Amino acid sequence: MNFLEYNKDEKLSFNYKKSCGLWLIVVALIIFAATVIGGKQIINMSVFSFGYVAAFLSINTNKKVLNRFSDGPSSKFQNKMSLYAVIFLFILMFLLGGPFFATENWRLIWLGALMATALHFFLYYFVHGKSMIYLAILCAVNVGVGYIFPDIPLTVTAYIDAAIKLGFGIYLFFFSKPTQQNNLHL
Q: Which UniProt keywords are listed (predicted)?
């Protein structure tokens, strides 16, 4: 685990819960808007893509926003885990949703993207704490139901996904406090 700069004796501080909450709130609103607008792609790809990139640049790469909504620094390990979580997200999106672009099966493309997002939240446990595990499980179950029951409209799955993210975002932004975890024993 040296490549991650993990120190088993280190107490991880989860100081970026508010910025994570803000990100989840904005992404939930983007998913909601893209689903309302819909069209052939069910969840409007242009609305989602533009909103996602604009939000990412405005929140996740904006030092002023991150500093304002953080309660202290992250460790090198947490910074690397955050980067690897994003890389993992795009790999999973390629694997789970990518194969269906050739046939334009928008339901499976979006289910793949939403499942990839759900699974990548597990890695964020090391950055934001236990709430990420619960978020990952709820989102994955929601998408799993969408895979198992094809008669459920994708819009229902998308609205539930947005509601889950919005709920966790509100909790993290307004109510969650910075916490510490120790003895992860990776």
A: Membrane, Transmembrane, Transmembrane helix
Give the pTM.
0.92
Span 142-186, pLDDT tens digits:
999 999 999 999 999 999 999 999 999 999 999 998 777 755 544
Q: Which two tokens stand for residue 140?
A: 């994955």
* H helix runs in the chain, sequence order: 17-37, 45-55, 63-68, 76-96, 106-120, 125-128, 131-148, 154-170
Structure tokens belonging to residue 22? 């803000």
Give the span between the Cα atoms of 114 and 121, in whole angstroms. 11
Q: What is the pLDDT of residues 32-88, one digit of tens each?
A: 999 999 999 999 999 999 999 999 999 999 999 999 999 888 889 999 999 999 999
CA geometry: angle 17, 19, 25, nearest 5 deg: 100
